[in-house]
Write a structure and sequence with these properties.
mainly alpha
Length: about 140
Amino acid sequence: MADARVVLHAAERAMRASRSARLDAVVHRASALLGDPDEAEAHFRAATDPVTAPWPFEHALAHLNFGEWLRRRRRSVEARPALGTALEIFQRLDARPWVERTAAELRAAGVAVVPTAAPEAVSGLTPQESRSPNWRPRA
């Protein structure tokens, strides 16, 4: 955790030197996760600002982390929109492990999540094959 804080402080210095919406979002997300718990919500809200939408994976991660944070504070109803946004983006990006993690969080927040249909090319895979990052469909 100490190494992560060193990186966070370096990113904060870079953010002050050169303003970038993407870097701002990354720093806010890291600050929410690593910083003062009393300031986390403000950082999560900044990290999930729509201005970060051009970077969908980072945008989805911020929503997922915010939703997880809210749910763990017994604010499940408030967590659902953030988790729903994250799920939609991860599905669009076909980021399956992240879809599964986000769907599990949504279920824990009381939302029934319908699994998305797997593309025909991968529907016959074993569970182990479907998790393999090196699997490619045969030509």
